[in-house]
Write a structure and sequence with these properties.
Blueprint lengths: L2 H21 L4 H13 L1 H12 L1 H17 L4 H16 L11 H5 L8 H12 L15 H21 L2 H33 L3 H33 L1
Helix pairs in contact: 1-8, 1-10, 2-4, 3-4, 4-10, 8-9, 9-10
C-alpha cells in the first residue's frame, strides 16, 4: 500500500468512528470494541501521529482512553447507561446545550434545523449518488451524516485509485476538500467546543476535542494528499 492509500485508509477510519459516535449512543458491541482497542494500544496507535500534530487531538484521545480504561473495571450496564444518558443530554436536546448537532442549527439566521444548509448538503449527496438511510431520522446536515459522507468520498477515491482512474480520484479529493471547507469546517469547531464545555462525561468531552482537532488537521493535509496523487498520475 502506497503513502496515499495508507493515509486515506487512516482518514476513513477516523471519519467512520466519529460518525458512529455521533449517530447514536454507544451500544454493548461498540463499547467492548473500544475497551479492547484502548487496552491493547490499538486506539492510541491509530491517533499517535495526529496527537503529535495537534494538542486538541492529544487531549481528546487522553480523555477517551482514560474513560475506556476506567470502564474496563466497571459493570458494563452501568457504563452503557451513563453514556446513553450523556448522549441524550448532549445530542437529543434534553438540556438545550449544545444546540442540535446540525449545520443549520449553527449556521442559519434563526439557528433552526432543516434550513438552507440542509438543502445544500442534500443536493451534494444526491449529486454524488447517495442519500441517508430511512431509519436515520435526523436531517441530512447532522454531524454524523456529514462525517459519514466524507468517509464515503474517501472510499470512492480509493476505489478509483485501485482502478487506475487517477483523474477521477483527483476529482474526488477536490470534492472532499470543498465539502470540508464549505460545510463541516464552517460549524464543526463551534459545535465541538460546545460538546467540550457541556459534557460531564470525559468520553464525550474527549470526543469534542478529537473532532475539532482532527477536522482542522484533515483540511491542512488535503493539499499534500492531492500532490501525492498528482505525482502518481505523472508516473
Amino acid at each position: 500500500m502506497g503513502r496515499f492509500e495508507e493515509a486515506n485508509e487512516g482518514r476513513r477510519y477516523v471519519y467512520n468512528l466519529l460518525s458512529r459516535l455521533y449517530a447514536k449512543e454507544v451500544d454493548a458491541e461498540l463499547l467492548e470494541e473500544l475497551v479492547r482497542a484502548a487496552e491493547s494500544g490499538e486506539l492510541a496507535a491509530r491517533f499517535e501521529a495526529l496527537s503529535q500534530l495537534d494538542e486538541r487531538v492529544g487531549r481528546g484521545l487522553d480523555l477517551i482512553l482514560g474513560y475506556l480504561r476506567g470502564a474496563a473495571g466497571r459493570d458494563r450496564r452501568e457504563v452503557l447507561l451513563e453514556l446513553a444518558a450523556e448522549y441524550a443530554s448532549l445530542f437529543l436536546g434534553l438540556k438545550g446545550t449544545p444546540p442540535h448537532p446540525s449545520e443549520s442549527a449553527y449556521m442559519s439566521a434563526g439557528h433552526l434545523i432543516y434550513q438552507e444548509q440542509r438543502d445544500e448538503v442534500l443536493s451534494i449527496y444526491r449529486d454524488m449518488g447517495v442519500d441517508k438511510v430511512e431509519s436515520f431520522r435526523e436531517p441530512e446536515d447532522h454531524i454524523a451524516l456529514e462525517l459519514s459522507f466524507m468517509s464515503y468520498l474517501i472510499g470512492r477515491t480509493l476505489e478509483e485509485v485501485g482502478k487506475g482512474n487517477l483523474g477521477e480520484a483527483r476529482r474526488m479529493m477536490k470534492v472532499q476538500r470543498e465539502f470540508l471547507r464549505e460545510h463541516l469546517l464552517k460549524w464543526s469547531g463551534a459545535f465541538a467546543r460546545d460538546v467540550e464545555s457541556s459534557s460531564e462525561v470525559d468520553f464525550y468531552k474527549g470526543l469534542g476535542y478529537l473532532t475539532d482537532g482532527f477536522l482542522s488537521l484533515d483540511e491542512a493535509s488535503m493539499g499534500e494528499l492531492i500532490s501525492l496523487l498528482e505525482e502518481s498520475a505523472r508516473g
